[in-house]
Amino acid sequence: MSEQTLSKRGQKGVPAGEAFGKLVFGQLYNKESNPDGIVSLGIAENGLMHEELVSYFNKIDIAPKDLTYGDGPFGSRALRSALASFFNDYFHPIHKVFPDQLLVANGCTSLLDLVSFGIADEGDGILIGRPLYTGFGSDVNTRAGAKVYPVSSEGKDPMSEEMVEQYEKELLKQEKQGVKIRAIILAR
């Protein structure tokens, strides 16, 4: 893409996008066309399931409303209600989760971009436990200008209560260096 047609923000993302595309999509496995290719675990997509997914989706009844914004830009009310029920029943949160507190998007990259752009200023930080998906850095940086600060789990489960101390240690370290930490990403 010609750099003259892109904004300065858009130009900033081109090299990272091209490098990521070559790395992840350059040699993908395909039973017929590339049987010696790789199965990438670096993206949230499972190419080995395509046939099963197509078969499943071909059985679903789709209404015209399903092809629109439906209930608005935050996702369908039915889906947000189902998610709120699931979160409340499964996780037993201290504060009940309500459908109006949820936003549904087409993937983690979109959600992390939206959230980081909404809560972080350029140069602010977001903590995340290791190991982590390398794409999180560009998800929060490309538009928002925020930075991911990985937190070593030191052999602990990154989702465990034991990790609170690790997150706090990194939070205090970054605050001493003048970095404002705006969020913690909890991801498996």
Protein topology:
Elements: H1 8-25, H2 50-57, H3 77-91, H4 108-119, E1 125-129, H5 135-141, E2 147-151, H6 163-176, E3 181-185
Parallel strand pairs: 1-2, 1-3
Helix pairs in contact: 4-5
Q: Look at the helices and sheets and give the structural class.
A: mainly alpha
With strands numbered from the N-terminus, the spatial order across the biggest sheet is 2-1-3
Principal-axes geometry comes out as globular
Helix-strand sequence: HHHHEHEHE
Average predicted confidence as pLDDT: 86
How does this structure look, described?
The protein has 188 residues and is mainly alpha-helical. It is built from six helices and three strands. It has a three-stranded parallel sheet, sandwiched between helices. Helix 4 (108-119) crosses helix 5 (135-141). The protein is globular, with a radius of gyration of 20 Å. The mean pLDDT is 86.
Quick structural summary:
The protein is mainly alpha-helical and 188 residues long.
Supply the key terms.
188 residues, mainly alpha, 6 helices, globular, three-stranded parallel β-sheet
